[in-house]
Amino acid sequence: MSPVSPGTAARSKRRRRGAQRRGPWLAIVYWVVIAITLVPIVSMVAYSFNDAPTNRLTFAWNGFTTYWYQNLWNVSGLGAAFGTSVLVAFLAAVVSVAIGLPLALALERYRFPGRGIVSSIVFADIAAPSIVVGSASLSFFLSVGLGTGFWTILITHVAFDVAYVVVVLRARIAGTSKVLEEAAGDLGATPFQAFRLVTLPLLAPGMLAAGLLALAMSIDDYVITSFVAGPSVTFPLFVYGAAKAGMPPQVLCFGTLVFAVGLLVALLNGALNRRLARTRG
């Protein structure tokens, strides 16, 4: 057994002493944050099974029931609003990834005039308050004579989703190397073949993560959508309006289903990342 040097022993002792000085506060803060995050979600899931005799959301527990799930579409306008939100979110996510991928590649791998300005615009889009983005979007649509509705919601959601997609994909691209693409070129692959067969598979987990983030940002947006929705009603707009007269429990059911689907996709994405890591290893 090799002897431990005095320097190593001293460093180990300092680390133990530092861990003792930290005390329980880090763990307490961690669990408080976790509780703040999970309590609303757990409450939503639990009360979606609560028997509400008045057909309106109540926090008095009246017994377990699946009635609201069996009658999801019985609330006038709720199903249509939810469908509109899902369709807008899906299209916005797909279009945002399609636009954000080449933009992220250009910003991360190439140097060109105006690169700094484009990067600043991307981050400014993220930093801008929602009310500013919504009012600016409405002013633009009115100035060009475009009536508000489904398409203005979609355009606006793509506009603010692209920035988040670019940030996520740039981080993924920064963690990959061009060596494999260059090797594919040395083996006779064209630039497009190298991109399709090498780059895209490497970026696939990042693209999925960026798409999910864009979908989540879009499906629950209220402030920006309220400016540009016109006669169209999305799920957040319906919930806000219904809250004034009493919210139907089906709203919690839809929220629970969205959370369940999002959790499933996140787990699948994690499994895909681990599989790719083992393959590369």
Automatic annotation (TrEMBL):
The chain crosses the membrane at residues 23-49, 78-105, 117-144, 150-173, 194-216, 252-272. This is ABC transmembrane type-1 domain-containing protein. It comes from the Bacteria. Keywords: Cell membrane, Membrane, Transmembrane, Transmembrane helix, Transport. It is a multi-pass membrane protein. Its main location: membrane. Belongs to the binding-protein-dependent transport system permease family. CysTW subfamily. GO terms for cellular component: plasma membrane. PANTHER family: PUTRESCINE TRANSPORT SYSTEM PERMEASE PROTEIN POTI. It is found in: Cell membrane. Residues 82-269 form the ABC transmembrane type-1 domain. GO terms for biological process: transmembrane transport. InterPro entries: Bact_Polyamine_Transport, MetI-like, MetI-like_sf.
